[in-house]
Queue: 4 jobs
Job 1
Amino acid sequence: MAEPLLQVERLSRRFDVAGRRGAKLHAVDDVSLAIAAGESLGLVGESGCGKSTLVRLLARLLDASAGRILFEGQDLAELPARRFARHPLRAEIQMVFQDPTDSLNPRHTARDTIGEPLRLLGGLQGRAADERVDEVASQVGLPLELLGRFPHQLSGGQKARVGIARALAVRPRLLILDEPTAALDVSVQAVVLQLLARLRSELGLAYLFVSHDLNVVRLLTDRVAVMYLGRLVEVGPSEQVFRAPGHPYTQALVSAIPGQGPRVRLSGEISSPIDPPPQVCRFHGRCPRGEDRCAREMPALAMRPAAAAQPPAAPQWVACHFAR
């Protein structure tokens, strides 16, 4: 992989548990990953696995409990989230939220919404700001006559375009997309996904793409990271991971895709994310391969033996004692 644009090292976030003094919920636990300039990395995993917490840490909307977030070598985790809001690097990392209706101010027109980051981060006002708003609206296919409308006057697809335009206005290098089409009708989803693919190609953007739709992730990303109970369990080239998943949890996820062969059904109880034992594999108890070793030793991400013969640019990393 090329030199990382964003590099995450042993990132963790723990939350206090109400009513349980000293107890901590491990939402993100010891996560390390990297995203190169222009690369699209998918992030997948079931609800509650920590995906949303992780992307909010990377967007600097949350402070980390431990670890580093390096953007071109500068540790963003050293800055409190409230201070990073006006930091010069804020413009480099922008986020497109899951529900465009909830993420747009109902009292702001589309023009005001797209122009706000220009004023706050770029120092643009007046004619210069209006020209940039017009430019980015055209890039996302939003008719200029709609810029004077409020969110309730726009369709779901139009609101999605406003959210994307707002993120693009300050010319970021990394776009974090948190389920960007989940709240849209199926007919609109395809159009927005095509738009995102085109924008990445034209603007050279790096994407962190979070989605429950594995087919979308397979089509729109170069690599994929699989998360389970706050930890990464597999990372590798998207096509390679979907064709030959190495972790038992990834195998269960991929088997749920229509046409992927026999379904792998998991049984057992999901482990609690509250103060989990550090030496126990998080997937232990649901894993069809689980053995005594899994209850004594947490597996680390390691290059899958079968991937060792692959080109250096395409390693596949799996956190499982029995990956082949």
Job 2
Amino acid sequence: MNRTASRCTVTQLAVATAAAATAIGAPAADAQQVLVIDTAAGRVIIDDEWRAIRTFGDMALDRTRAILYARDDEEPEAVMAFSLETGEWIRTIPTPTGDGPRELQQGMAGMTLGSDGRLYVAGYVRVLEFDPLGQYVSNWRPGVETVRGVCEFDGQPAVVAYSGVIRRRPDGTDERFGPGFVDRGRTTVEETPDGLVTRTSRSPPRIACTADAAYVVTDSEEGPDSVFVHHRDGRLESWAVPGELAEALDDDCKLAVNQSGVSFELPCSVWPRYRRPSLDGRGDLVLLGHDVEVPGAIIDPETGCYAVVRKPERTFAHDALNIYRDSVLVFRNVAWENDQGFNLSTAANRVSIHPLRRVSGAPCPGMLPSVGDG
């Protein structure tokens, strides 16, 4: 089995615009709290030089059973499950490449956890469904050109279709949410509360769902990311991006990196900003991803109140990618130096959990109730 990470240099990594939100039309709210990741506290879950966990794709957390589902190069055509308590491997769920009903025609493109612990795995053409023990249940081929991400929307799998959302009905047919159309150039025409808006997408939309709403995060050439909220009753909202996450890094910003005794200096802007939506288990929307300074934010969809999540210092070395209880899962990027310069992998070989500390502001009601000042 090949356990070597697919690697790329920092300068080859695409730059994506930030994503997070405060709802247009929702109560106005500035960031009521700023949280910092306390990397001096916490514990290591996985620390294995041969591990290569993919960090530029979806991962899923089973908070009830304390399980992390992720892609690892040990099993490139499977989802691997790890204990969040011990880091031990629990099971491997095969997702072979192929044309069969239990296969993914072009490989894996995303995954999510259902409300009862079932796992959905998207693969460009179809979605595979597994029970909480990893046993195959069913497959669904939605009427969309490319299946890139999946969520569970009111008890059924749903996928993003650039201009909206497609949900599987209990009888297996497609249910569509959202007006608009998409051409092959990925120019999207969306109907928003302010009228029709045309966007040219740089990267695929990302999706996360509750029983009542599907959150679609897109980016565009014209400006920062947007969040479209497709409600179960057919209503559509558009959310704006808070300034803390949309601000461009200073052109003069440089990070000093030391690898194997060799020092490098890299511009901060080479690190991609690609934040994925998820839920924190309490109904809050989480947008976290790759950023040298501000991984993302946690947003209360009901009030628009949000908390900004920051690293204790600017760094390429690790990324906070998931909220677990009142802490974050941090993935350390594989790094190495060769004749071509400093390189960062798109995979991680170390996963740790660290508490969040409030450094300013007052908490949003009900959000991260046990987070203290630090």
Job 3
Amino acid sequence: MAITAPLPQGFMDEMRALLPEEADLLFEALDREPQVSIKLNRRKLADDTPIGYNDMEAVMWCTSGRYLPSRPKFTLNPLLHAGTFYVQEASSMIYETIVERIIPMAFDTSRTPAVIDLCAAPGGKTTSIINAIPDGIFVVANEFTPQRAGALKENLLKWGYPEIMVTNSSVDRLAKAGKAFDIVAVDAPCSGEGMMRKEPVARQQWSESLVKQCAALQREILENACDILKPGGFMIYSTCTFNREENERQVEWLVEEKGMVPFDPGFPDDWEIHGGIDTPYPCFRFMPHRTRGEGLFVAVMRKEIDHEERTVPLPKLKEWLRKNVKVIADGVPQREQKGRDMVPCSQWALSSDFPSEEFEGIEVDEATALSYLRHEALHLPPEIGKGFVVIKFKGFPLGFVKNIGQRANNLYPSEWRIRNL
């Protein structure tokens, strides 16, 4: 449903000054229904795998992105909980394409590549990065706010990439790790102008003082981001807002004060991505009156190569993180001690490298799958052996039960159980 609250007058004045020929088109777009889109998990799905939705259309700037004609109740699709797709607005999916294009250059400077998403919750951009990278690359997803960090952990463990670490830390503390990362993603906290079609709070909270406050915080985060980026590494900077203060001016500061080198990923003209405004550097704006998605600003920069500058080897980086920041997920958990038993973790069943041949599995229907996801006890057919059994829906693991004969004890994480049915 479209938002009926009026756009803030100060924002409208700002946009008319910034985009005098397109401002009214932008305002009209912000009063229309938002697009609905999902991203497929490349490690779990082939492009033609059915996931329960019809009439999907491709997102032109992301090969794994799909538009849906309307918004279903995603919670009722067990394949969402299996990590086969992620609900994400389409503009943000450009991260996947950017990372694909910089990988050949980003990873040739290190034999043990590492990537960090500094402001990662709820996980959309991290999952896009994971979709783009080859297996074995170490990925850190950080979120400062504890409540948001929990959702980030859940989403990434469901996505199933094994080389993941989720941290709950301030960026300035992470900066003490040293020059350790080949790609640093900064999807910075912002004034949210690009979300005014999708989120009512974006209209309610907007003010000129908020813009200034966000710009100051972004500058602080970017300063620290430069400190952990290896020479020759790449930084991706993005916001979901339109003003220059939080966008082009931050890029200008990175280039002119921090020595970052602008990089143009080479997006085709037919993607209709707006260029930067009043800047000599390559910057890109997804504008809702031009592209099928919400507002997004993104720029890519590279740190100059300095062969004399010391970098942090991957084993030392992992050791430092475990000792110095709050780690809430260190890889995908496999087994945990419960009483006398070593019990397989349901999160393990969602991993893209899960050894499914080691466990008996049972295919269930949708009603049983939803019952399992509500963390209810199940009753399995008598021919199913006792012990740990993988529950599957349409061939995709959802997690474990312990079959004891009369019933099967549900081992799905209780904090993940679905309630809104």
Job 4
Amino acid sequence: MTITDRIAAELKDISHAALITGDVARQYATGFKSSAGLVFITREKSYLIIDGRYYEKAAQQAKGCEVMLLTDARKQLYSIIEEHQIKVISIENKTMTVSELEEYKRLFNTLTVDSSGWLSSVIDKMRIVKSSEEIAKIEAAQRIAEAAFSKLITAIRPGMTEKQVASVLNFYMMDLGADGISFDTIAASGVNSACPHAVPTDKPLANGEFLTLDFGAVVDGYHSDMTRTVVIGKPDEEMQKVYNAVWGANTDALKAVRADITGKLVDNVARSTLDAWGYGEYFTHGLGHGVGLEIHEPPTLSARSPFTLHEGMVVTIEPGVYIPHKYGVRIEDMVVVTADGCMNLTKSPKTLVYI
């Protein structure tokens, strides 16, 4: 069953339709990535209306829908509405702007436009559990990121700037076949590594400093996400202790992951480990998040997470310790939740690397 078929099966009745306008949901529904286009789903048939920039490729690649060349969206949509006798149209309330909503209300002024969030909720529930095909794409992106990291650690030298390190890592990922990078690569050294989402600067790498690298690749729209912390030169005793504490929290949290456990409980396992090492107060963010067509998507793993994990979810496990004015350490793996544990998609070793 295609994704459009699954969405169609959720429609209330034959007079109910779904209109997808968001880039991510459109790719999820049709398997085709584009920056524009409309997906209109009825109980009987689904349509992708798309402009000339994408039409030929969409006709070849889009799944579960008839592909129509965009000529006059209003006329084309009303032709479909009349053919299928549609009375109610649900839209994505998470991605549509207020002005777009008002425009569609004017366009469909004789119909009921449902902006309740029903459609967004249906799509979110489908997307949160990944298919084997989706997992394969995420894993392919992860293999590229890891290969780039392996090349990078042989190229890093003291004196390189954080910007240069991030740029080289990005180049390696693209050179190894990535379609893009998952997000702005983080390369944070020394005191800058104490900021979880630091932006690379002109600061040069210096001996006796941590360097935290948070990065990912994209393959066919699907993201990977990993973090490794290395040391320039050799660490002192306290640095080694901090690193071991984070590694222990990562290991314990991985052991806790399984279907039917809550995101809150897995987060608590990591925090308890860091508390035991004496660094709990320095873990200042949630333990993890879902990964897929977006780099951050449900579920969350945090002290406030409302989610229970289910088989097939892809989540990160990324405990960290960030000591103000000193340094920070983060170790992040990406896993697939299984019935009795998890499958770790991240194969890069976690033994502290000395540069």
